[in-house]
Structure formats: structure tokens, C-alpha cells
Amino acid sequence: MDLVIRPAVPADARGIAANNRATALETEGWEIGQGTALAGVLAVLEQPGRGFYLVADEDGEVVGQCMVTFEWSDWRNGEFWWVQSVYTRPSHRRRGIFARIYRAVEAMARDSPGVVGLRLYVEVGNEAARAAYRRLGMRPAPYLLLERDYAREQEGRA
């Protein structure tokens, strides 16, 4: 079984969407509709200005992934890449798959003029993920994330 880290293509959309649904259910108990998940993935794949996905492909199956989106920093006159939608299928965990994906993102960022850093957010109580990110060189930022989530408000989950 060969594992390849590569940019996602439209044929990966259903696998990525299924992984996104699994992530939401596992981490937040949130059941995202299949149509919503697929539309969200396709919006990124069809409009590269929104971001991109890197996937871990094992024999044609997406077993791990992350999405990268972009944030302009006027203070730094450069772009932060946000690492999001991180997921490795349970059957493939503890094999360094996300570390390989992250290192690929980091190399791409370093090779991209104008990218000034990487950011991500993680559930406060997810100690395993926090430890994994620290092992990869990520450090807590001096910011607290606040949000207003209209989709959750509409579902009554705010």
C-alpha cells in the first residue's frame, strides 16, 4: 500500500466530504448534511481563491486530509495560511499521516512568496491534537478566537 500526499482533485470531493462529516461528528457532535458537506468541498475545489486541499491517498482512497485557506495580514503585508478540516481516518491514525500532510503544507508555504506563516485552531479540550500540533512546531498564539456562527444559530446550536 503506497501512501501519497497530493493536492485534491474533483474526484476526491466525496471522500473529503465524508471525512468532514466524520470530523464534525467526532469532535463536536455535529451532524453536517451530506449535501452541505459536498457543496462546501466543491466550492473550494472549483474556486482555488478560497483555498485548497491536500490529501493522503492510499490506493486511490482519501485516508487523510487538510484544507488550507488564506488570510491577508496588513500588519505583515503577507498572507497566513490557515490549516483546517484536518482529518485522518481512525483506521489510519498513529502512522504519521497528518505529520506528512502538515510538512507538505509547510514546505509549500515556505516556497510561496508572500506567505508569512501558518495558523490553525483546535478545540480547547482536544489535548491529543494540541500535542500533535506542538510536535510539529506550532505554538499557542496570543489571541482568543471569537466567532458568530450563523449556520449554527439557524440550527439552534449557537
Structure description:
With 158 residues, this protein is of the alpha+beta class. The protein has one domain: Gcn5-related N-acetyltransferase (GNAT) (Aminopeptidase). Helices cover 37% and strands 27% of the residues. It is built from five helices and five strands. The N and C termini lie far apart (43 Å). The mean pLDDT is 94.
Task: Jot down its keywords.
158 residues, alpha+beta, Aminopeptidase, five-stranded mixed sheet, 5 helices, 5 strands, 37% helix, globular
End-to-end span in angstroms?
A: 43 Å
Q: Strand order across the biggest sheet?
A: 1-2-3-4-5
Q: What overall geometry do the principal axes of the alpha carbons give?
A: globular
CATH H level: which superfamily?
Gcn5-related N-acetyltransferase (GNAT)
> Please, what is the average pLDDT?
94
Could you say what the CATH topology is called? Aminopeptidase
Counted beta strands: 5
Helix and strand composition category: alpha+beta
Count of the domains: 1
- Please tally the helical runs, counting DSSP H or I stretches of 4 or more residues: 5
What value does the Rg take, in angstroms? 16 Å
Uncertain segments are none
Briefly, what CATH class? Answer: Alpha Beta
Q: Largest beta sheet, briefly?
A: 5 strands, mixed
**H/E topology pattern:** EHHEEEHEHH
Which percent band covers the strand fraction? 25-35%
